[in-house]
Here is the input.
Amino acid sequence: MGRPDVIPFPLPETLLADVLDRWALTLDEPARPGGTSSWVAPVHDAAGEARFLKLARHHADAAHEAEGLAMWNGDGTVLLHGHHRADGAYALLLERCEPGTELGEVVAEPEQDVVVAGFLRRLWREPEPGQPFRRLTEMCEQWAEEYEEEPCEDLDPGHERLGLELYRSLAAPAADDRVLLTDLHAGNILAAEREPWLVIDPKPFVGDRTYDVTNHLLNCRDRLFGDPGALVERMAGLCGVDTERLRLWTFGRLVVETSWWPELAEVVPRLAPR
Here is the structure.
């Protein structure tokens, strides 16, 4: 089957045809965008098994998605059935989640907290020699540098300075670091048959577990803007991490995120260290 026109970003011209042939896949319709850097389509393999085919541009944060899925091996995540890298892009053959409804579409936020926290505690893994996962320090340094190139004009300079300092220092390697998902939120948890919910799109790094909680917080807009302290306290308790450390991480991350989400500047003072 020819390459559909719905792929919304540049990919090597032969990638789709190559993986359809490589894995003996039949491409179903419709395909669906997976975001600004990925594309997902339902397929069937040679045995008639329903799968998802994901094509994605390479980007640093998701560099080891396949290796992470292989490590978790379906324990709370979708199963990886195939992986192929091409020039600047990659393809994943994945377990198909049915019905595939996002957690955030059908479950209220307070219940989402419980599901997200349960997956975080379940999926944190002790790093092992030979794994390719990069250190959280690398990602945090990159994001801090990008903020410094385009800072938010609405931030108090003292909060800005302290937030960047914390964002870098909290990421320092420690003995109890774990393999993190770094992008777990209600949109990356899908209803499935093998388990009630399965995680998709992990972006593995090795670092402080507390950081991993912040992504869900930033996806709870109403509570983040309404009572950020209560939200931090609730998630810290559910995830078994230190409340004050999560507050500091969230403060630092909010500072960095204001470069593209300036409205967060109104939340920053409310989580500033006492």
Q: What stands out?
A: The beta strands are 26-27, 32-33, 38-44, 50-57, 80-86, 89-95, 178-180, 189-191, 197-199, 205-207. The chain has a mean pLDDT of 92.
